[in-house]
Amino acid sequence: MQISSRFTIAIHVLTAIDVFKDEYKTTSDLLASSVHTNPVVIRRIIQQLKAADLIDVIRGSGGASLKKEPSQITLLEIYRAVDCVESGDLFHFHEDPNTQCPVGRNIHAVLDNKLIKMQEAFENEMKKTTLSDILEETKQLIKEEQN
Amino acid sequence: MQISSRFTIAIHVLTAIDVFKDEYKTTSDLLASSVHTNPVVIRRIIQQLKAADLIDVIRGSGGASLKKEPSQITLLEIYRAVDCVESGDLFHFHEDPNTQCPVGRNIHAVLDNKLIKMQEAFENEMKKTTLSDILEETKQLIKEEQN
DNA sequence: TTTCGTTGTAATGTCAATGGTTACATCTAT
DNA sequence: ATAGATGTAACCATTGACATTACAACGAAA
Predict the structure, then answer these.
(1) Is pLDDT of B85 > 80?
(2) What is the mean pLDDT of residues A85-106?
């Protein structure tokens, strides 16, 4: 299984919101066209980003804008916002191993620590990159295109 | 989405194979009972572990055994063996962003490096734990139960 | 105050993966 | 031969992802 594309779409959307902020009204239609998907898919994701307090969305007249400094938005926050992993647990532990069995009744205790560590390593790496890193590089590439 | 329980089941199975090696013939029935699932589910997983050269499975008379030293089997190898993530990519990138859009045509290049790093952080952490770590701790817990 | 463009959200559909189950051919040791 | 295994195909139910249609609610501007 892979981590849902909601995550990369959310990053794309936040990037586009910032890059286009002075040029266009960043509606779900515009964003959907950039991502190349359906506007409703975008609206669902911007609702999640709004619930996580990362953006404002203007009902009625339309458009979205960042609510925090890009340097204060880590990829981990975005990942958590779009809820790619149920209950926050990256690993799916098989339910109720046999407690009659010495291995069955102890494996959970042994594995839990390790699984948590792996998940933390992953999430810590996500903390290291912020939206402003993405924005800088993206804007740079766009600038280079113009030569 | 969560990483398939095949992963934790595989660890459980390998642990049980070693713990019970002198006591029982570790058939798919026995292992299924320890994991508390269907024997066919176990057989599918032991086939994957066999294909990855981690175990031998004896056709006919039955039973499985480790093919490598537990200290030489990392959780990463087990994870790869059971193929929880298609094509090895942990993240699902939304296909074909709009190339008419400056963000759409550049976001992939910007994100790819970051995603790879996050995946590597995760996989490196998996390399740090071996089956022998799991075995030691499990055997210790079993021993403690007997007091 | 009506109209228009937009958001918010429910309902529905398709697809793929997971995990469970039955069934059975095949193998091997006794 | 037979008994106990494995290897594997077939099928099913459930779930989540993503796409899509439809429409109510909203807000600004004509």
Answers:
(1) no
(2) 90
d(CA A20, CA A17): 6
B79 phi, psi to nearest 5 deg = -60, -45
Residue B130 pairs in a beta bridge with: B74
Size of interface A-B (CB pairs under 8 A): 182
Question: Is A1 within the bounds of a domain?
Answer: no
Amino acid B59: pLDDT: 95
Distance B141 CA to C13 C1' (A): 50
Residue A69's CATH number: 1.10.10.10
- B94: containing domain: 6-145
The one-letter amino acid code at A13 reads: V
Tens of pLDDT, residues A13-27:
999 999 999 999 999
Q: Tally the domains of chain A.
A: 1
Q: Kindly list the residues from chain A whose CB atom is less than 8 angstroms away from the CB atom of residue B33.
A: 98, 101
A71 Cβ under 8 Å from any chain B Cβ: no
